[in-house]
């Protein structure tokens, strides 16, 4: 499947934030380090993640995000899975009962496309977790 926005670089926000020093007990795939759910650093990670998303997608123009929960079975991926270590990281997080960073989704017509989070979407499908946090992206004229 062709990317929806070929002239727009894909986000790897988790990879950009994961370069921080890894602490004992963090979720990691060797490149990305995500603090565990109950870690005091998790709130700071989540705030940094949201800020990086807003900065990244602000290049599209006026974009607003709405917090929501989605069923990954009702979404369409925009890119194939390439990083199987990252996929395994998200599978391990979901199996342990932790939450993954929110997906960025957008309605195009009547279909809900995953703009960022295809690995998280696939991990949720593999582990049969059918409620994922998401940010619904809307473009404003």
Could you name the ranges where pLDDT drops below 50 across 5 or more consecutive residues?
1-10
- Lateral arrangement of strands in the main beta sheet: 3-6-4-5
Task: Report the order of strands and helices.
Answer: HEEHEHEEHE
Give the strand tally.
Answer: 6
- The 3D shape can be described as globular
The whole-number mean of residue pLDDT values reads 84
Q: Gyration radius, to the nearest Å? A: 15 Å
What summary fits the major beta sheet?
Answer: 4 strands, mixed
CATH class: Alpha Beta
The CATH superfamily turns out to be Conserved hypothetical protein from pyrococcus furiosus pfu- 392566-001, ParB domain
Q: What's the number of helices?
A: 4
CATH architecture: Alpha-Beta Complex
CATH fold call: Conserved hypothetical protein from pyrococcus furiosus pfu- 392566-001, ParB domain
What percent of residues adopt helix (DSSP H or I)? 25-40%
Write a short abstract of this structure:
The protein is α+β, with helices and mostly antiparallel strands. Helices cover 30% and strands 24% of the residues. It has one domain: Conserved hypothetical protein from pyrococcus furiosus pfu- 392566-001, ParB domain (Alpha-Beta Complex), CATH 3.90.1530.
Fold and architecture overview:
The chain has helices at 13-17, 42-57, 84-95, 118-126; strands at 27-28, 33-34, 62-70, 103-108, 111-116, 132-140. With 141 residues, the chain is α+β, with helices and mostly antiparallel strands. It has four helices and six strands, in the order H-E-E-H-E-H-E-E-H-E. Mean pLDDT is 84; it is low at 1-10. Helix content is 30%, strand content 24%. The chain has a four-stranded mixed sheet. It has one domain (13-140): Conserved hypothetical protein from pyrococcus furiosus pfu- 392566-001, ParB domain (Alpha-Beta Complex), CATH 3.90.1530.
């Amino acid at each position: 499947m062709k990317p929806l926005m070929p002239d727009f670089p894909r986000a790897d926000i988790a990879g950009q934030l994961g370069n921080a020093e890894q602490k004992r007990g963090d979720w990691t795939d060797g490149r990305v380090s995500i603090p565990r759910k109950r870690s005091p650093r998790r709130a700071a990670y989540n705030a940094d993640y949201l800020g990086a998303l807003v900065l990244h997608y602000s290049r599209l123009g006026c974009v607003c995000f709405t917090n929501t929960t989605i069923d990954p079975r009702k979404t369409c991926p925009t890119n194939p899975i390439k990083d199987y270590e990252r996929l395994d990281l998200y599978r391990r997080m979901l199996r342990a009962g932790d939450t993954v960073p929110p997906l960025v989704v957008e309605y195009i017509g009547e279909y809900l496309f995953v703009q960022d989070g295809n690995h998280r979407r696939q991990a949720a499908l593999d582990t049969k977790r059918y409620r994922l946090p998401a940010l619904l992206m809307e473009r404003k004229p």
